Amino acid sequence: MPSQAGHAALTPSRTNNGQRSQVTHRDAHLQPRPEGLFCPAGGFHVDPVRPVERALITHGHADHARPGHRHVMATRQTLEIMAIRYGADFAAQTQVAEGPLRIGDTRVSFHPAGHVLGSAQIRVETRGGVFVITGDYARTPSPACLPWEPVPCDVLVTEATFGLPVFRHPDPLAEIGKLLESVRAFPDRAHLVGAYALGKAQRVIMLLRAAGWDGPIHLHGALQRLCDYHLDQGIALGDLRPATIDRGAGKAQFAGAIVLAPPSAFASPWAQRFSDPVIAFASGWMQVRARARQRGVELPLVISDHVDWPQLTATIAELAPAETWVTHGREDAVIRWCSLNGHIARPLRLVGYEDEPE
């Protein structure tokens, strides 16, 4: 249900065809700008792609959390992740988002997004109503972070990374089962699994543990610091070891082993250390076979930390906001679905958001 902020001024009216019509100019309260979403009443941007005076950050992925802002507010874990990635001086000032906070003429709170460790949706209450900026979010529970929390609002700002009906993510444990089946089928080959450093790598590790793999998992050095941080946060990842080849052992040292690395490592000399490895990649994009072929992926694993089409449309239907604003993804398909199902929607067409940069 929409929030009660603003009372009658926020109540949707009905057009002749039964669809809701906008009765306030909410786009004056949250505006897409070249730097990112801007809230004039609070004087802050959300996930800005250029340096700004005050930034509210949804999560630590590098396409949302960038250095160089003067003041940054985020969850404690997101701030610590940004410090790991960019150094302690990534912003002039930082503030942990704890509880509802007053910023200018707004009231702001952070709520779990279920995407990666520390990820949050940002609820912004202004005279124009209640806005919820999801950042990136996932409704399939991940043991590596707090689960997504439904937040009632007047305006839902939703991602649409996988906003096409074709995207229906399978059971992640079944996908991990494919990896383990391949390890059993090819015991003489190392399995190199591409996984982004924040969120996906830890999720793959925890899925492997849940599926019964209790042996060592080897890590490319680029994944080590963020895995160590998850361990510091009390998240059990089991036996992790560096993917370092002993000179005396040769390439056969990793026969039958599972090795996690950033996808960019597969095109580097690092991957040549392994003898005839099986190349796998864990991503929602692996449902698109052409992408798997382009990356030279032999074993695509469709494991996503975003909502798929059924979850995205279910979120809009369940929250029933007065308006849905769609960004960084397949906006047109989601807006078309909204139109057919009696929801008012508009594209934001923000730039700068993509897969996690490596």
UniProtKB/TrEMBL annotation:
<feature type="region of interest" description="Disordered">
    <location>
        <begin position="1"/>
        <end position="34"/>
    </location>
</feature>
<keyword id="KW-0540">Nuclease</keyword>
<dbReference type="GO" id="GO:0004527">
    <property type="term" value="F:exonuclease activity"/>
</dbReference>
<protein>
    <submittedName>
        <fullName>Ligase-associated DNA damage response exonuclease</fullName>
        <ecNumber>3.1.-.-</ecNumber>
    </submittedName>
</protein>
<dbReference type="InterPro" id="IPR036866">
    <property type="entry name" value="RibonucZ/Hydroxyglut_hydro"/>
</dbReference>
<dbReference type="InterPro" id="IPR026360">
    <property type="entry name" value="Xnuc_lig_assoc"/>
</dbReference>
<keyword id="KW-0378">Hydrolase</keyword>
<feature type="compositionally biased region" description="Polar residues">
    <location>
        <begin position="12"/>
        <end position="22"/>
    </location>
</feature>
<dbReference type="InterPro" id="IPR050698">
    <property type="entry name" value="MBL"/>
</dbReference>
<keyword id="KW-0436">Ligase</keyword>
<dbReference type="GO" id="GO:0016874">
    <property type="term" value="F:ligase activity"/>
</dbReference>
<keyword id="KW-0269">Exonuclease</keyword>
<dbReference type="GO" id="GO:0004521">
    <property type="term" value="F:RNA endonuclease activity"/>
</dbReference>
